[in-house]
Amino acid sequence: MSNLMVIDEEEQTRVPFLRGILTRSLQNAGLAFDDSYRLANEVRDELGDAAEITNVELRSRIRLRLRGLDPQIAEQYDNVLGSVESMLVRSPDGDTSPYSRGRQRLDLLSSGLTPDEAAGIVAELFRMLNERGEVEIDAGRLCELTHETIERELGGKAASRYMVWQDHEASDRPLLVLVGGTVGTGKSTISTELARRLGIVRIQSTDMLREVMRSLVPEQLLPALFQSTYTAWQALPATEQDAEPSDSLLADGYLSQSEPVSLAYQAVVQRALKERVSLILEGVHVHPAWLSQIPRETDAIVVPLMLAVLSRKQLRKRIKGRGRRAPDRRAERYLSNFDAIWQLQSFLLSEADHAGIPIVFNEDKDATVQQAMFAVLRVLSQSAAGADTG
Fold it and tell me: Pairing between strand 301-308 and 175-180?
């Protein structure tokens, strides 16, 4: 049976269907545990191999079954669903806004929780807040309850990460995440998911900046710019075109292209810092050496990451997959230069290791995103500790 995702169109969220959460909500409506558990299983079995369902349709199916069991419980189920959503959250400045499970779930994802963990914590908070029957809650108190619930359900480390993110949100400091890696390491995919979890709306690809520069600069002036990063060595002076590049020659070619591209992305970074907005910069041109060119006077939190795929077989498979999803990416050209791409990855990983930049091994998307989130939260924690002792 495939994983079933529940879509909340109003909150624009997708969460996994979890029998345990449905069982608990049915118990909260007054249904006995055995009946709640059986109904949750029946609903899941009825949906079969469906990939997704809206929360409205799911609730409609549950109501229909409950009405057949006990109309009073069906009515109570509606009351339970509506009670927390009608609660107001009061901010420190006195403003109020409706409580949103979707927003709280995203907040928990920003704290490094997995989607399943976040869904479970929101469900537990949902139950607790319903039992209290409050119509308004202070944002600080809601934060305390969330921290206590995470600590009780997931442990102290997860609770500490939640507070690290809360402190960062309160600081209003921009977050700059730099994601490097060679072809096929998943930079775009991982960056997109990081942006969603961290609430960052700006993602800039260095490949796109290179394309803009190609339209503005004559090829005769910067010939390396018009090559791929792994073939840029061919544009270097006195280079034999048919020769296999040495490690140093390939690195020199890469740097000859990355240096002018870095001028463009430095401008993008400086603009983001000036506007005090968070940004994810991703691309093969993100090289550790260019980190030193980020203005030192900024209070932005800078998190560099280097993605890697350490299996030649897996990297080749990923590149083939890119060709199937997007034929214009010319997977055949990548595969014909696979050895050079592998050499370039070795160079980038060596540079990252020398600079002390976290290397994230991308073997599984969910695990990779989780590793990247932990890396971001570690930097946030270290920054906060440094500020406390400064």
Answer: parallel
At the second CATH level, the architecture of 175-389 is 3-Layer(aba) Sandwich (3.40)
| Pairwise CA distance, residues 169 & 309, whole Å | 32
Q: Taking the model in full, what pTM does it have?
A: 0.76
Q: Which amino acid is located at 26 in the chain?
A: L
Rounded to whole angstroms, how far apart are CA atoms 134 and 130? 8
Alpha-carbon radius of gyration of the chain: 25
Kindly report the backbone phi and psi dihedral angles of residue 27, in degrees, each rounded to the nearest multiple of 5, phi listed first.
Answer: -65, -40
3-class secondary-structure state, position 302: strand
Domain boundaries, the chain: 1-81, 86-171, 175-389
pLDDT in tens, the chain (390 residues): 567 888 877 666 777 888 877 887 787 777 778 888 888 888 888 888 888 888 888 888 888 888 888 777 777 776 655 555 567 888 888 888 877 777 788 889 999 999 889 888 988 887 788 777 777 889 999 999 999 999 999 999 999 999 999 999 999 899 999 999 999 999 999 999 999 899 898 999 999 999 999 999 999 999 999 999 999 999 988 766 556 789 999 999 999 999 999 989 899 999 999 999 999 999 999 988 887 778 777 889 999 999 999 999 999 998 887 655 555 556 788 899 999 999 999 999 999 999 999 999 999 999 999 999 999 999 999 987 765 555
